[in-house]
Design a protein that fits this description.
The complex is a heterodimer of chains A (294) and B (280). With 294 residues, chain A is α/β, with parallel strands linked by helices. Chain A is built from twelve helices and eight strands. Helices cover 52% and strands 13% of the residues of chain A. In chain A, strands 3-2-4-1-5-6-7-8 form an eight-stranded mixed sheet, with helices on both faces. In chain A, a hairpin with a 7-residue loop joins strand 7 and strand 8. Chain B contains eleven helices and eight strands. In chain B, strand 5, helix 9 and strand 6 form a beta-alpha-beta unit. The chains are: A alpha/beta (294), B alpha/beta (280). The complex binds guanosine-5'-triphosphate (GTP) (2 copies) and magnesium ion (2 copies). One magnesium ion binds next to helix 5 of chain A.
C-alpha cells in the first residue's frame, strides 16, 4: 500500500542515530516507487528524485537530529514547489465578453466543467453564455442546453448559429454574447485525441480566430502515464493557460497532476470533485502533494 | 550472454521503463522482470533482440491466465441475454453499448437497449441516437429511479422476445457507497425479473486510466460479480497496461477493445496485439 511505502522509507531513517548517503538514496528509492504507483510519469519521477536527491545530500539531512523528518520535508516541499505556487485565477478580457475555452480528451469532463464555471461566474454576478461547439458527440448540445436550463442561462449551439462548423459556432457566439449582454462566453469543445491532426487543427483555428483569454486543458484525474503525451501535444499546439483536473472525488492518487504540471509548466487552476455543478475547487498544491504521497 | 548471465542495469531500467510507461504498474512490472531474470539465467544464451520476445511471452502468459471466451459466442446461450454495463464516469459505456448493439444486430440478433442512466444530462438522448444508428429498439427513461425503469424494461424484454438486452447505467465512482448500493439494487431487480439475469455484468474501463483502474475493478467486483471487461480509447497513445494486474486479480475475460467513436470501432481483445503495442 502506497502510504506504507512512504512511511517505511522514513521509519528506516528515523530509527537511526546517524545516517549515510546510502540510507538517503535507499529512502528516495522507496519514494520513487511510491510516486510511480501514484501514476506520476516515469521520466517526471526520475527528474523529481534527482532534484530531491541533490537537495537531500546537499542539506543538513546527514547531520540532522531527525533525518527522517528532514527528508520528508524536503520531498514534500519539492513536490509543492513543482505543483505550483498560489492559486492562479482566470484571466478576464478588457472588453467583454471574456472567452474561456475547454479542451481535452474524450470524456475528461469538459461539458460538466463548462456548467461548473458558469455556476461560479453567476455567483460572482457575471452573465455567462454556454457555447456548444461539440457537433460530433450524440446529444452533446442537448447535454449543455440541459445545464443551461438548470442554471437559467442561454446556450448558443449549431442550431442558433445555423451551422455545423465548430469554428463558426464559436465565432458567432461572441457576436451573440455582445448582442445579449453576456460578459463571459464558455466554449465547450468536443473531446478529441491529441494525435488527431484534423481535430487538433480545429482547436488551433478556433484559438486563432477568437483569441480566448483562457484556454483550459481539462484532464481526467485518474489518467496514468499517458498524461504526459496528451499534455505535451495540447500545450505544444495551443499553449493553453491552465489545467483543470477532474474526478478528484474518486480515490485516484492524482499523479497526473505532477506529470502535467512538470511537462507543461502551466498552472493547475481547479479540481473537479463531483458531478454536481457546485463541485469545483480551487487547486491547492499542499493538499495535492499530500494526496500524491499518500 | 553466457549461461547464468544477467543483463546490465541500464537494460533492466529500460525494460522497467517500457512496462511502467505502459501503465503496467510497479509491482506487476517487477514481478515480470523477476520472471524474465530467472528465465534468462536458465537459457544458454540470450540475444538482445530475443529479450523483447521473452518479455512479450511473460505478458501474454499473465493475460491468458483467466477465463477466456468471446461474448459473441455467449449471447446466444440464453434468451433474452441480459448485459449490464457498469463503470466510472466517462469511460465509454454508452458509446460501447451503441457499438455492441450494432455488432449483435448485424449478427441477426434482436437487440433492446435500456437507458437506465436517469441521472446525467441528456444521457437518454445520447443512447437514443445510438439506437437509431444501430437500428435497434430502446426503452427510454423518464427520469427518477433507474430500478423502476429496469423493472419495466425486463417485462418488455420477455414479452417481445428480444435476443439481447443492453442496460446502460450512469457513471459512478466506485468510492461512493450509495451509488454502488444503487447498482446492487438494479442487479436485484434484473435477477427477480429474469432467471439467470443479468447474464453479463461488464466493467467498462477507460484505456487512459492509470493504477486506479485496479481499484475500480476490485470495488465493482465486490458490488456485483463481473463477468467481463471492455477497455476503451486504445486508439490514442495509452497502452492500458493496468489490465495485466486486473487480470491477475479478477481473471475475467477481456471481451473487446474500443478504438474510436464510431459504430464499428470495437474489436475483440487479442492478447498478442495488445502486448505488441505495449512493447513497441
Ligand atoms: N465523479 C465525477 N464525475 C465527473 C466530474 N466531472 C465530470 N464528471 C462526469 O464525467 C462524465 C463525463 O463528463 P462530460 O462533462 O460529459 O465529459 P466531456 O469531456 O464533455 O466528454 P466529451 O464531450 O465526450 O469529450 C459525466 O458522467 C460527468 O458527470 C467530477 O469532477 N467528478
Ligand atoms: N477515442 C475514443 N473515444 C471513445 C471511445 N469510447 C468512447 N469514446 C468517447 O468517450 C466519451 C465518453 O463516452 P460515453 O459513452 O459518453 O461514456 P460513458 O461511460 O457512458 O459516460 P457517463 O455515462 O457520463 O459515465 C465520448 O466522447 C465518446 O465518443 C473509444 O474507444 N475511443
Ligand atoms: Mg462534452
Ligand atoms: Mg453514459
Amino acid at each position: 500500500d502506497l502510504s506504507n511505502k512512504f512511511t517505511l522509507a522514513f521509519k528506516k531513517l528515523a530509527g537511526r542515530s546517524s545516517i549515510n548517503e546510502k540510507n538517503i538514496t535507499d529512502a528516495l528509492r522507496d519514494i520513487r516507487l511510491a510516486l510511480l504507483e501514484a501514476d506520476v510519469h516515469f521520466s517526471v519521477v526520475k527528474s523529481f528524485i534527482d532534484k530531491a536527491t541533490e537537495k537531500a545530500l546537499g542539506q543538513e539531512v546527514l547531520r540532522s537530529v531527525s533525518p527522517g523528518e528532514q527528508l520528508v520535508k524536503i520531498v514534500h516541499d519539492e513536490l509543492i514547489e513543482t505543483l505550483g505556487g498560489e492559486h492562479a485565477p482566470l484571466q478576464h478580457a478588457a472588453i467583454p465578453p471574456t472567452v474561456i475555452m475547454m479542451v481535452g480528451l474524450q470524456g475528461s469532463g469538459k461539458t460538466t466543467l463548462t456548467g461548473k464555471l458558469a455556476h461560479q461566474l453567476i455567483k460572482k454576478g457575471r452573465k455567462p453564455l454556454l457555447v456548444a461547439a461539440d457537433v460530433y458527440r450524440p446529444a452533446a448540445a442537448e447535454q449543455l442546453k440541459t445545464l443551461g436550463r438548470q442554471l437559467e442561462i442561454p446556450t448558443f449551439s449549431a442550431e442558433e448559429a445555423g451551422s455545423q462548423d465548430p469554428v463558426k459556432i464559436c465565432f458567432d457566439s461572441i457576436t451573440y454574447a455582445r448582442q445579449h449582454g453576456r460578459d463571459v462566453a464558455l466554449l465547450d469543445t468536443a473531446g478529441r485525441l491529441h494525435i488527431d491532426d484534423d481535430l487538433m487543427k480545429e482547436l488551433e483555428t478556433i484559438k486563432a480566430k477568437i483569441k480566448p483569454q483562457e484556454i483550459l486543458f481539462v484532464a481526467d484525474g485518474m489518467t496514468g502515464q499517458d498524461a504526459v503525451n496528451t499534455a505535451k501535444e495540447f500545450v505544444g499546439r495551443l499553449d493553453f493557460h491552465g489545467v483543470v483536473l477532474t474526478k478528484m472525488d474518486g480515490d485516484a492518487r492524482g499523479g497526473a497532476a505532477l506529470s502535467i504540471r512538470s511537462i507543461t509548466g502551466k498552472p493547475i487552476k481547479y479540481l473537479g470533485t463531483g458531478e454536481k455543478l457546485d463541485l469545483l475547487e480551487e487547486f491547492h498544491p499542499e493538499r495535492m502533494a499530500s494526496r500524491i504521497l499518500g | 550472454f553466457r549461461p547464468g548471465a544477467t543483463l546490465d542495469a541500464s537494460t533492466w531500467e529500460s525494460l522497467e521503463e517500457i512496462l511502467i510507461t505502459a501503465d503496467i504498474g510497479v509491482s506487476t512490472s517487477h514481478l515480470i522482470l523477476d520472471k524474465l531474470k530467472k528465465r534468462i539465467q536458465k537459457e544458454k544464451s540470450v540475444q538482445p533482440h530475443e529479450i523483447r520476445n521473452l518479455l512479450e511471452d511473460e505478458l501474454i502468459a499473465l493475460l491468458s491466465g483467466g477465463i477466456s471466451g468471446q461474448l459473441d459466442d455467449r449471447v446466444v446461450r440464453n434468451k433474452p441475454y441480459v448485459i449490464l454495463m457498469v463503470g466510472v464516469n466517462g469511460t465509454g459505456k454508452t458509446t460501447t453499448i451503441g457499438k455492441l448493439a450494432g455488432r449483435f444486430s448485424d449478427q441477426g440478433l434482436k437487440v433492446l437497449m435500456v437507458a437506465a442512466d436517469t441521472f446525467r444530462a441528456a444521457a437518454s438522448d445520447q443512447l437514443g441516437i445510438w439506437a437509431d444508428r444501430a437500428s435497434v429498439e430502446i426503452v427510454h427513461s423518464k427520469g427518477g429511479d433507474p430500478s423502476a425503469l429496469i423493472f419495466d424494461a425486463m417485462d418488455r424484454a420477455k414479452s417481445r422476445v428480444f435476443d439481447v438486452v443492453l442496460v446502460d447505467t450512469a457513471g459512478r465512482m466506485h468510492t461512493k457507497v450509495n451509488l454502488m448500493e444503487e447498482l446492487k439494487k438494479m442487479r436485484r431487480v434484473i435477477e427477480k425479473q429474469i432467471v439467470g439475469a443479468p447474464h453479463e455484468t461488464i466493467l467498462v474501463l477507460d484505456g487512459t486510466t492509470g493504477q486506479n483502474a485496479a481499484a475500480q475493478a476490485k470495488q465493482f467486483a465486490k458490488a456485483c460479480p463481473l463477468t467481463g471487461l471492455i477497455v476503451t480509447k486504445l486508439d490514442g497513445t495509452a497502452k492500458g497496461g493496468v489490465l495485466v494486474s486486473i487480470q491477475q486479480d479478477l481473471g475475467v475475460p477481456i471481451y473487446y477493445v474500443g478504438v474510436g467513436e464510431s459504430l464499428d470501432d470495437l474489436i475483440p481483445f487479442n492478447a498478442e496485439d495488445f502486448v505488441k503495442a505495449v512493447t513497441e
